[in-house]
Specification:
Helix content of chain A: 10-25%
Order of helices and strands of chain B: EHEEHEEEHHEEEHEHHHHEEHHH
Radius of gyration of chain B: 22 Å
Distance between the termini of chain B: 63 Å
CATH class of the largest domain in chain A: Alpha Beta
Oligomer: heterodimer
Strand order of the largest sheet of chain A: 10-9-8-7-11-12-15
Largest sheet of chain B: 8 strands, mixed
Structural class of chain A: alpha/beta
Number of domains of chain A: 2
CATH architecture of the largest domain in chain A: 3-Layer(aba) Sandwich
Structural class of chain B: alpha+beta
CATH superfamily of the largest domain in chain A: Nucleotide-binding domain of ferredoxin-NADP reductase (FNR) module
Largest interface: A-B, 38 and 51 residues
Strand order of the largest sheet of chain B: 3-2-6-7-8-9-1-10
Number of helices of chain B: 12
Distance between the termini of chain A: 36 Å
Shape of chain B: globular
CATH topology of the largest domain in chain A: Rossmann fold
Order of helices and strands of chain A: EEHEEEHEEHEHEEHEHEEEEH
Strand content of chain A: 25-35%
Strand content of chain B: 15-25%
Largest sheet of chain A: 7 strands, mixed
Number of helices of chain A: 7
Number of domains of chain B: 2
């Protein structure tokens, strides 16, 4: 019998500051044990419990794609006690990781289809994983459109990659910020507004991930455009602890975000009380 | 059916101790809890229901998941012998079976090994559950709402009735039968014993209040999620969490680290959906920020959500929550209120 409560050791290879105030940091981790690496099979959208022994554990979506072999990437916003401790870590430090946990974005379902990715703020982590994965298997999918909003240009994460994607002709990127900012020449406006303005084909599959308020206002826009509820997917966030449907913290209706999610279609969520 | 003279209880306990660590109700202060006993004299025979449920034997209120130091991570040593529980009541026995569904049966996905809880399984898998019939049920008992009763054997390995002179014992599972067969003081019951058992059971049954039919409860709950009725139900609750603490089926927990330098441990601790912090996220966002919502969660989980996942209620009618509630909330009254509630048609 395996013991899912025991973390595997991982080493911090690289720490990247994602914004000038250093409140968002990306951690590239490598496996300490080769056997753990072999066993760690995951898909974009899944999450892990990231822990520092003695300081505690918190759930984070995996920001790397399984195509990026040998590393796991997490982007951590300094918010509470565990994330503060994570921000004190240095390159070379050993941390604990449990996972992969939960389900994943419907990668197989969207093969051969157009895909729209809508993200906001630093909740772009698992969306990045999905985009990287799709670009790596580019011929499997139709048109890929990305709408990504942040408060200011500084608040985007993975900026270098966003620049690279903008240069490609096989992915359409719409970057938007909340209000005018010196030097910003791209879109201005909240994500729901931009979603309405950008012409989207309602036959596409949509994956939305962002702060609760963004999701709340974006979903009606998508329905208005004509997307079917079973073609809209989102990833929910709750305060998961055990990750295996026992501790009860992430219950929404009779579902647990940690094992039945975190990815749900809007059709599923409509049936669950307390989802929003 | 077997019997042995009540004076042989000490010997029976000693006999069990050869194979098991024996746990039984033990008085401590004003409370009675299941504790490991070394001798039968420690058993508190005056109480019907223990103050805290026996779930603690398999799912301690604070349990070390692992310790760590320079050499790495170590899981705690396992219990050397399985547990035998003497003096359980039917409600608690059924509760342990329900909890086993949660912790060991991997959400009815037996192939998903990662969903199994090794800490529960190690302690539970070879345990012996000995249920004692309730001869004088309490006014708070409502096990008969769940097709159970004072003499319910469901889930027991051995079922015991305390007679005038004898303990009557019935082996239910093969394991229970084997244990009874190995105790030399037992004799076969005779017709007169059967008579006594019948009388005891009819007296016990007469103590029980008439049951409420819960046939419509799950469906009703499915229809009233956003009904103003919850404001009425939850108004009194002070979110103290006592109900969840004493409940034999509540199983929510928190995971927390305690450490200094490079030594420490990760523990899990009982938690409850009654607490605001249970769902509060680091950002300050709380998906269940209101006391009323938390009361609703507890009721919905027990009588609606859990039924979806396990086809049974997460409640066995032990009545402990009724006893401990500091503001006199009575879950039986809440259920009746829900069943009697007329849903107003929405014209929106």
């Amino acid at each position: 019998m395996c013991n899912t409560y025991i973390p595997i050791p991982m080493k911090i290879e690289r720490i990247i500051n994602e914004n000038p105030d250093k409140s968002l940091r990306t951690y590239n981790l490598s496996f300490v044990n080769e056997a753990d690496k072999e066993k760690f099979v995951y898909m974009p959208g899944q999450f892990c419990e990231f822990s520092i022994l003695g300081k505690g554990e918190s759930p984070f979506g995996i920001a790397s794609s399984p195509t990026e072999e040998g590393i796991l990437k997490f982007t951590v916003s300094r918010t509470g006690s565990v994330t503060r401790e994570i921000h004190y870590l240095q390159e070379g430090d050993i941390v604990g990781v449990r996972g992969p946990l939960g389900n994943w974005y419907p990668e197989e379902l969207v093969r051969g289809q157009d895909v729209v990715i809508i993200g906001g703020g630093f909740a772009f982590t698992t969306l990045r994983a999905m985009i990287v994965y799709m670009l790596e298997h580019r011929d499997r999918y139709g048109k890929i459109t990305v709408i990504y909003g942040a408060r200011t240009p500084e608040h985007f994460i993975y900026k270098e990659e966003l620049d690279e994607w903008e240069k490609r002709d096989d992915i359409i990127l719409h970057l938007t910020i909340d209000k005018p900012y010196p030097g910003w020449e791209k879109l201005i406006g909240f994500v729901p507004t931009i979603t309405k303005e950008v012409r989207l084909d309602s036959q596409s599959y949509v994956i939305v991930c962002g702060p609760p308020i963004m999701i709340k206002y974006t979903l009606p826009v998508l329905s208005e455009i004509g997307f079917q509820d079973d073609k809209i997917f989102t990833s929910l966030e709750r305060r998961m602890k055990c990750g295996i449907g026992k501790c009860g913290r992430c219950g929404i209706g009779s579902k647990y975000v940690c094992i039945d999610g975190p990815v749900f279609s809007l059709a599923e969520l409509n049936k669950i009380p307390e989802a929003f | 059916m077997y019997k042995f003279k009540r004076i042989y209880l000490p010997e029976f306990i000693e006999y069990l101790q050869k194979t098991y660590f024996v746990f039984a109700p033990v008085k401590s202060g004003t409370e009675t809890e299941f504790k490991q006993i070394t001798s039968f004299t420690e058993i508190d025979q005056s109480r019907l229901n223990t103050t805290i449920s026996p779930k603690e034997i398999f799912f301690p209120r604070s349990e070390v998941l692992f310790t760590y130091d320079e050499d790495g991570i170590k899981t705690p040593p396992k219990r050397e012998k399985p547990a035998a529980l003497w003096g359980m009541r039917a409600c608690d026995t059924r509760s342990m079976r329900i909890l086993n569904d949660v912790f060991a049966n991997a959400h009815q996905m037996p192939e998903k090994d990662m969903f199994k809880d090794p800490y529960w399984i190690d302690k539970y898998k070879d345990c012996l559950l000995i249920t004692e019939a309730c001869l004088n049920p309490l006014s708070t008992c409502f096990c008969n709402w769940f097709s159970s009763g004072p003499f319910d054997e469901t889930g027991s390995d051995i079922f015991v009735v305390k007679g005038e002179v004898d303990y009557y014992l019935k082996g239910i599972t093969p394991k229970g039968k084997e244990v009874l067969a190995g105790f030399e003081k037992t004799e076969k019951t005779i017709a007169k014993d059967e008579e006594e058992l019948k009388v005891l059971q009819s007296i016990a049954d007469s103590y029980m209040n008439p049951p409420t039919d819960l046939g419509d409860l799950k469906d009703k709950l499915g229809k009233i999620w956003d009904d103003p009725l919850w404001d009425e139900i939850g108004a009194k609750c002070i979110n103290c969490g006592a109900c969840a603490y004493v409940c034999p089926t509540c199983h929510c927990f928190d995971v927390s680290d305690e450490g200094k330098g490079n030594k420490g441990k990760r523990v899990r601790l009982w938690d409850a959906c009654m607490f605001q912090l249970f769902t509060k996220e680091a950002s300050g966002h709380n998906p269940r920020s209101n006391s009323i919502h938390r009361v609703r969660q507890r009721i919905m989980h027990k009588y609606n959500y859990f039924v979806d996942n396990y086809q049974k209620f997460l409640c066995t009618g032990c009545g402990r929550c009724v006893t401990v509630c500091p503001v006199n909330m009575d879950i039986r009254e809440i259920i009746k209120q829900i069943l009697d509630h007329k849903i107003e048609k929405k014209d929106k």
